[in-house]
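Hypothesis: this fold can be encoded by more than one sequence.
Test: take the structure tokens below, design a sequence, compare later.
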């Protein structure tokens, strides 16, 4: 299915996975879209969709609406790639939140994009920012803040973030909290790009170790994350349900 975004005029080609649109993009194509969003200076929302998120959207009408209305939805799990293949719609590759964050930081060092890190436990976003500035000298991370605040403070936090005038806002609060925060506050913050990145700050800060390249190539990163952090077992339980829903769908 092809649709055109209002702000940039870019044509999107999407694949429907359990009723949710997922863009047929490679990492390079996703980065081109994001560069277009930044240039447009109009608020755009990017969602990195994994299997557990698609499952949650089946029973969460608010989250479902957010996914349906996002400006870019990238395939962020091997399950999404598998489901697309079953429909005869091959997706180029996995485009994850952690990899997008890394690529955008590299682009910031080159283009001067203003980045803001919001989320994770106190101190984690700051450490992630420090390490990424070392990795990409000139990376323009203009502010950080932890994500431990109540939902009724969303507007107050958004007003604080807006003062930094970010081009790209990364929100690491977990699905679907981060997407709901973005949707509610994007008119306040006004960032051209707002994207939920889950546990990415934990990875870049060094708090959590990412799976080795071999594990990633074997499409077992989900299992690695569960073993390294048993609190993610609930998310892992969504995977067989996702597979069952896909198999029973037409």
């Amino acid at each position: 299915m092809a649709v055109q975004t209002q702000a940039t005029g870019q044509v999107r080609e999407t694949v429907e996975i359990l009723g949710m649109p997922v863009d047929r993009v490679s990492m390079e194509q996703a980065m081109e879209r994001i560069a277009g969003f930044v240039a447009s200076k109009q608020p755009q929302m990017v969602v990195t969709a994994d299997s557990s998120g698609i499952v949650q959207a089946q029973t969460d009408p608010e989250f479902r609406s957010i996914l349906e209305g996002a400006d870019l939805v990238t395939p962020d799990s091997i399950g999404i790639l598998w489901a697309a293949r079953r429909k005869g719609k091959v997706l180029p590759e996995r485009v994850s939140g952690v990899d997008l964050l890394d690529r955008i930081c590299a682009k910031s060092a080159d283009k001067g994009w203003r980045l803001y890190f919001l989320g994770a436990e106190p101190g984690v976003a700051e450490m992630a920012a420090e390490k990424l500035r070392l990795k990409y000298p000139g990376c323009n991370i203009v502010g950080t803040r932890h994500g431990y605040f109540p939902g009724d403070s969303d507007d107050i936090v958004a007003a604080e973030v807006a003062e930094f005038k970010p081009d790209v806002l990364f929100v690491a609060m977990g699905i679907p909290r981060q997407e709901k925060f973005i949707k509610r506050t994007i008119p306040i913050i006004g960032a051209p790009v707002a994207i939920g990145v889950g546990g990415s700050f934990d990875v870049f800060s060094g708090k959590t170790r990412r799976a080795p390249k071999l594990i990633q190539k074997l499409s077992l990163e989900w299992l690695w994350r569960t073993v390294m952090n048993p609190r993610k077992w609930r998310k892992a339980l969504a995977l067989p349900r996702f597979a069952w829903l896909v198999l029973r769908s037409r």
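The chain is about 50% helix and 15% strand. The chain has a mean pLDDT of 89.
Hypothesis status: open.
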